[in-house]
Design brief:
Blueprint: H1 5-17, H2 20-27, H3 31-45, E1 50-51, E2 57-58, H4 60-83, E3 92-98, H5 100-104, H6 107-112, E4 117-123, H7 130-134, E5 140-143, E6 152-166, H8 168-174, H9 181-186, E7 189-191, H10 198-207, E8 215-217, H11 221-229, E9 235-238, H12 239-247, E10 252-253, E11 260-269, H13 277-290
Length: 298
């Protein structure tokens, strides 16, 4: 099957802007032309590519085709640079899968040192972010998987250390006789979302619990830490994010020396490894500056 890249460009514009009107304005064509191009592409592929919602969302096939268009754009930009030819095209667009806690701590510093690229960040748990690579919907991912996804290179980044913390008032209210398994089974905790297993892992390792206590679901790294400060529940937070709170005793560890270390890796499509080598270098440098090294305690 040979794709018409004008149609792929239109699909990518719809998913990037969220509507047919915005895509038409972005491409400098009419909304009718956008609809006709998408219809022709869907007929060629034999599948629905866009869910006409507010905003428009891509189906699995639609997201993969849009990612393919972005990948081709990156390869073309690299070729133009290698040939020393001036490009009139817009900056490259890069779709990445990154866990929320990396975005809340060390990852933005890496993005700041990568000019000339527009980023489309998919937020997912580090234990699941590699799935986006396997589906071909992102170019690279920060993941907890050390084994490279098919067609990808894997670079170790470092350790993101988590601490189970709560406010002093919460500790006094729920653990007056110490942080025992019985008390942990009753004390409310936080979970980022249904994929978040950090608290579950910590409970298994430190209390032997095989069932979850009552919990709040709170899908925001910043609000997660604030909820702990306010005494709503206890939860796992990156040590880097809450260091000032620990020093000021606004938050206290549930147990001493009971940190949970999560290894992080940078996986990137091997096809695009060369054109994106500067980005990989920047991300590895940011990780070295902020994450704990492998095989060494803090």
């Amino acid at each position: 099957m040979t794709f018409d890249y004008i149609r792929l460009q239109t699909l990518a514009a719809i998913l990037r802007t969220g509507s047919f009107d915005a895509a038409a304005a972005d491409l400098g064509i009419t909304q009718s032309a956008v609809s006709q191009r998408l219809k022709a592409l869907e007929e060629q592929v034999g599948a629905r590519l866009v869910l006409r919602e507010h905003p428009c969302l891509g189906t699995d096939a639609g997201r993969r085709l849009a990612a393919h268009f972005d990948h081709v754009g990156l390869l073309e930009a690299d070729l133009i640079s290698a040939l020393g030819t001036e490009s009139k095209s817009s900056a490259a667009r890069l779709r990445l899968a990154v866990n929320a806690d990396s975005l809340a701590t060390w990852f933005p510093a890496a993005l700041a040192s990568i000019p000339g690229v527009f980023f489309d960040i998919v937020v997912d748990d580090q234990d699941f972010s590699a799935d986006w690579l396997r589906k071909g919907e992102v170019t690279a991912a920060v993941t907890a998987e050390a084994r490279a996804a098919p067609g990808c290179d894997c670079h170790p980044l470092g350790i993101l250390r988590y601490v189970a913390t709560a406010s002093p008032a919460f500790m006094a209210r729920h653990f007056p006789h110490g942080v025992t398994p019985e008390a942990l089974a009753r004390a409310p905790m936080l979970r980022f979302n249904e994929k978040d297993a950090l608290q579950d892992t910590w409970l298994t390792r430190n209390a032997g619990l095989d069932r979850l206590p009552p919990f709040h679901r709170l899908p925001s790294s910043e609000a997660f830490a604030e909820a702990c400060r306010l005494g709503i529940a206890w939860g796992m937070a990156p040590e880097q994010q809450i260091r000032d709170d620990l020093d000021a005793e606004r938050l206290v560890p549930l147990l001493p020396r009971a940190e949970l270390d999560v290894p992080l890796y940078w996986q990137i499509s091997r096809l695009l490894a060369k054109p994106l080598q500067d980005m990989t270098r920047a991300i590895r440098q940011a990780a070295r500056t902020t994450l704990l090294p492998f095989g060494r305690d803090a």
